[in-house]
Amino acid sequence: MKIYNTLTRKKEDFVPIQPKHAGIYICGPTVYNFIHIGNARPYVVFDVLRRYLTHQGYTVNYVQNFTDIDDRIIAQANEQDVDFLQISNRYITEFFTDTDGLNIARATHYPRVTEEIPGIIALVQHLITRGYAYEVAGTVYFCAPKADNYGKLSKKNIEDLEAGARVEINADKQNPSDFVLWKAAKEGEPSWPSPWGDGRPGWHIECSVMARKYIGKTVDIHAGGVDLIFPHHENEIAQSEAEMEGPFVNYWMHNGMLLLDNKKMSKSEGNFFLVREVAEKYSYEVARFYLLSGHYRMPLNFSEELIQAAANGVERIRNCKTNLTDALQNPQGTQTLDATPFRADFLAALADDLNTANAITALFDLVKFANINISTASAQSLQALLDEMHFMAEILGLNLSATENKGDTAEIEALIEQRNASKAAKNWAAADEIRDALANMGVIIKDTREGTKWHYAQN
Ligand code: AMP
Ligand code: ZN
Hints:
By secondary structure, this protein is an alpha/beta fold. 46% of the residues lie in helices and 15% in strands. The strands form 5 sheets. Strands 4-3-9-10 form a 4-stranded parallel sheet, with helices on both faces. Strands 5-6-7-8 form a 4-stranded antiparallel sheet, covered by helices on one side. β3 (21-26), α1 and β4 (59-64) form a beta-alpha-beta unit. α10 packs antiparallel against α13. 40% of the residues are buried. The structure holds adenosine monophosphate and zinc ion. Zinc ion binds at residues 27, 207, 232. Zinc ion (ZN) is lined by residues 27, 207, 232.
């Protein structure tokens, strides 16, 4: 596979540290709101990276953090007069509702900042000991000019950075581009004890600590949006490489921004559409397909036309699948077809820096070919076309089930809970009624020892 590496600004062959093993770290959300469709872009495109590598025989260790302590979380907690963890826990649950709806495979690990405080303190301490960081009045700063080649990812030059950062005057900093590793506690804010007094971690340090702990000294692939290149990822490199020999990350992958009226979609600017708003109007599957319709490094416009085009695309694929399935029930033809070239194009597209747009073109080529030949193809060929379609859909993460995967996960889970309560009350009739209602929604349930499991019916 070739990957465009932001560090070298080149497409490079992907060579993992250990053969057939990939450690992938992706920066997670700050959990103070529902995710918008722009936030979903990195989680969807890098989920395809993971699926593709898994198909290529890789074992993928996929790590995504949650920033569960932050100024914006604290502000909301104060507004609502609740503990900050109530805010972050709520939005972590909501995050999973959306990412499960988008069919994003669960990560191997989901570390949270508030559960990694000892590791963070240890790294900050280590950086002080090694002369890379200093403390002023309970706040610890990283000394940016001490880092080897600070600015190498963002291609910024330290002198320019110093000049630019001078605008924001902070008398405590030794250099304008120094950044915070540990913040001294402010009155009424959540804090943890540390060698520098009560405080909380700065933003960047968490990712250095978590990547190291859950992946190792060097990460194969570190992903996130281009908006994180500076300062977040630049600072992650400075912190992690100050502490060790060798690179922190071998391949940096960054997705382009989702734009609304030519401006970055952003929570803080207030110009956004939530994932669940798009899912309500169309479906989670359409939202996912839309996000994969462009190359991940390019900006992607958010427009009704593009989402409608994605909806039409999903419909075309589904119809073709239904027609192939129906034709297989009563095959009319005898023609032997070669269904294999589409897979080769599909995989070649993904191998070329995760070009999902071209991969989708290969899927549409297959659909077109199937539609033309459906009435004359032999049973074996129909099955082969269907298998190819399933293969591509699996890597793109489309489930193609009969039921539209609408934003109804919460409703399904609520019904399952009601059914379990009915069963516990030995009200079997009510329990059966709920089972039937779920079946009508295209949901199959299974009672297992670990509780009730559900999935959408495949047809
Ligand atoms: P945040 O919760 O703002 O830290 O963002 C979580 C992830 O969403 C990061 O990887 C960001 O780079 C990404 N992101 C935020 N806004 C956009 C956008 N408009 N388009 C694409 N990705 C975005
Ligand atoms: Zn990060």
